[in-house]
Design goal:
It is built from no helices and three strands.
Length: 48
Amino acid sequence: MDRGKPSLTITVVPDSATGELAGLTGKMDVIIEGKQHSYTFDYEIRKS
């Protein structure tokens, strides 16, 4: 809850991705409005 409004943020655990996703960072927000849910996923893949 955020000031009485449902919210959820999911963060990519640092250094948890492997293979083609190695270097992945980011977060996903679950947006709840009434009975509707939507998602945003802001990410970056850093290649070394």
